[in-house]
Amino acid sequence: MARAIGISALLMTGLTGCAGAPTDNGAQHPANETSAASTPSPSQTPSPSVTPAKSYTSDELGALVGQLKDAKGVKLSVMSSADLTGSLDQTKALLSSMSVEPAECQEMAISGTAPSVAGATVAVGTSMDAAEGATTTVSMASGLDPAFLAKGMAQAGEISKCANMSITAAGKKLDVALTTIDGLSSVPGTLAYRTDTTLPDGRKQSIITAQAVVHSVLISVISMGGATEEAAISRAGAMLDQAGAQIK
């Protein structure tokens, strides 16, 4: 967890069940779902089914992520599929070794990454501003189990319950505090929070996470570093807004 920066932080917080609730522009609609209005008899014309959300390939998601730009107008660097696979495998191994206190927060913190993203397509892009000492990382994931996305809605409310946790990994105990952030993005249903981690040597690391589901695509943004927390929040909100607009 002490190395939970960049892509590792993104995968740990963006794909472990802490996604915000699917919103009106990203609701889950089973392919055979019909209108709630009165249903004709079998001899009549059947009710029209709701069009399922588009599923994106990794290449399609990569192309969308590659169109995103940072505040200076520079396009994000898209991670290769090989690097992404390696980072995901590393993060799965890290998560499997973690224990969380209080115990009731274990599932929220590290719930089922491996089964949750099986079969899904993912693309990740990163912006690094050396002058500001800031990094912004974005992921888009398509094909996630609707039950996994719906579970995120329930777990969003657990952030306040698990506002203060301790996480033990690789023999090291870390203190972790979560604080929700309101009004970060214009994307409906956005879940945003700050993670403050106190490392064993006393140093503190803060990460801003923002997530939303748009047309069944889970978008996760992580912003860290920079001059101020307000700047990190602004970067995360602007990037989420921009990413959400890419999903049609």
DSSP strand count: 9
Examine the coordinates and then state which fold CATH places here, giving the name of the CATH topology. Protein Transport Mog1p, Chain A
Average pLDDT, all residues: 74
Kindly report how far apart the N and C termini lie: 35 Å
Give me the strand/helix succession. HHEHEHHEEHHEEEEEH
In the CATH scheme, the class would be Alpha Beta
User: What is the helix tally?
Assistant: 8
From the spread of the alpha carbons, the general shape counts as globular
The largest sheet has its strands arranged as 1-3-4-9-8-7-6-5-2
Report the sheet with the most strands, covering strand number, pairing sense and barrel closure.
Answer: 9 strands, antiparallel
CATH second-level architecture: 3-Layer(aba) Sandwich
Unreliable sequence segments = 1-8, 10-50
User: Percent of residues in helical segments?
Assistant: 25-40%
As a percent range, the share of strand residues is: 25-35%
Helix/strand/pairing class, anyone?
Answer: alpha+beta
Domain tally: 1
Radius of gyration: 19 Å
